[in-house]
Amino acid sequence: MATTVLRVRLVGGDRMDITYDEPGIAEEDRLVEHAIATLAEDSGILRTRHGERLVVLYGRGVAAIEVAPRGAVL
Fold first, then answer.
1. Tens of pLDDT along 2-23?
2. Which among 18, 23, 14, 8 has a CA at the least distance from the CA of 59?
3. Taking a C-beta distance cutoff of 8 angstroms, is the pair 59, 44 a contact?
4. Segments of 1-74 assigned E as strands
5. Residue of 64, 46, 48, 4 whose CA lies nearest to 28
């Protein structure tokens, strides 16, 4: 299972760092592409984590996603 940390910029201007994983995907590159494709859909949502909290991210509220080689800082 691949895990990655994404820095998400929301439409309102706020930013947050979230952890995303998907049990069926083993490579981080494929995981990032899956997250982008999911959020690009009209009804796209991702179940993510911010620390110990579950965060459901809706594609309509996302303005940008940043992926760094070492990930964002939580």
1. 889 999 999 999 999 999 999 9
2. 8
3. yes
4. 2-10, 15-22, 45-50, 53-58, 62-66
5. 4
Q: Is 31 exposed, middle or buried, given 0-12, 13-18 or 19+ CB atoms closer than 10 A?
A: buried
Backbone angles phi, psi at 52, to 5 degrees: -95, 0
The string of pLDDT tens digits covering residues 22-51 is 999 999 889 999 999 999 998 999 999 999
Tokens of 12: 């309102």
Rounded distance, CA 10 to CA 21, Å?
A: 20
Fold annotation for 2-66: SH3 type barrels. (2.30.30)
Structure tokens at 4: 């990655």
Q: Can you give the length of the chain in residues?
A: 74
Which residue type, as a one-letter code, is found at position 68? Answer: A
